Amino acid sequence: MKQKQSSRIICWTPSIGLLMLQSGKQISSYWVQRLESDFGQAYRLEKANGPSGGFDAGPYDVLLNDEDHHSCDCIGHLRWGTYCRHICAMLQLRANSAPIELAGEVEPVPF
Fold first, then answer.
1. How high is the mean pLDDT in each 10-residue block of the chain (111 residues)?
2. Residue 47 and which of 20, 29, 54, 96 are 20 to 30 A apart at CA?
3. Are 20 and 11 in contact (CB under 8 A)?
4. 100 phi and psi angles, rounded to 5 deg
């Protein structure tokens, strides 16, 4: 069983696609963009305040599907195969029926 990361959404502004997450004391802001995908719902999360300069600077492509085989290209998910905070946040928005259909161009996703 995959362990889900402990994080919570502290702000979601769908009109501009801004998502703020809190994990412990760390708060991260992301611009969310819908991507085209044949395998489920795909999104790109890009840090709103720019990359942190660390190993895992993003952007992160998240794929949600109906078979519980979600993926993210962040280093945590790729290394451990667990649900990262990016997957958890997008699943939480979807479960709460939050509007995550964003305006703007749709890009193909390389999954």
1. 64 86 87 89 86 64 89 89 88 78 44 32
2. 96
3. yes
4. -115, 15
